[in-house]
What does this fold into?
Amino acid sequence: MTSTLTPKKLGFVHLVPIDPADPARGLADTIELFGFAESLGLDSGWLRSRHLQRGLGSPAVLFGALAQHTSRIGLGTAVIPVGHENPFRLAEDLGTADLLSGGRVLAGVSVGAPKFSDEVNDIVFDSGWRTEDYGYGRIQRLHDLIDGARVREIEEYNGIGGDLDTERVEPHSPGLSDRIWYGGGSLRSAEWAGQAGLGWLMSNISSTENGVRDFGLVQQAQVAAYRAAHPTPETSNAVLARVAVPTEGATPAQRELYRGYVERRTPRTREVHGPRTIIAPDILGSTTEIVDSIAQDPGFAAADDYLVELPFEFGLDEWKHILEQVATRIGPALGWTPGGAA
It folds into this structure.
């Protein structure tokens, strides 16, 4: 079947697993997975950031390796919590990764104070974290640094040192500042991202708004607020990420794994967590069932690009199966065309 909901681009989100007993394995599997995704014609792969967990905390470093093993696929972050970063240093890392990849970095970021205990924060960040500003201005500062904003003035070189000094963050990668997304789940964040001229990145976790709990309607309203606030709505870009687990082409063991995974996670989608947090149901089934679910979701209808979130608990074979089904069956059924598939 063909849906009228045609994503401009189609990609995936991956949380790189780090096994303390074999930490290099998750990195090697990710490099293989991105190469496989590129061969399928998928447009982008986005890495989650995790700190003090069994996940990757430095996606920009891995991008350096991915840049050498791929040539076309976009390299995204979904998302880097900038509260854990020095915007100056992050701008340097992202600029380096973007140049190595030939301008393929898609920088998804978010704000918020570190959520460790005060004692852990003091160890990780020193005491300065207590007075930091963790608001939207932190993202604006990162954007300006990536964009090449002048940080200082340089006196004319007089032959006594200083000949390597620069006024801006180096290396500077032209165009990277136009590829920054803000990841959020509220109308306030959506409006701010629009006003800042950033992309808007949505996941399977969001917030109730004005008493509305329907996940698709909540994200539809966020996209509308984002575009209304954007200085050039015609260039705005809203990206939606959801967990989708296709059963076609799976082995019996994989189908059992997939169904058990979704069944365990479904109860959490039926309630509001904390004051306002809601979670979207995972999409499980055949190509027809998945496409029908997407077609009935107002959030997908409002978004420009779609991302499939790969379950952390699966392995390389399962991730490859999901991506193959997305690229060869689900995407085409939605009207998507592979980008330079090998």
Q: What stands out?
A: The chain has a mean pLDDT of 95.
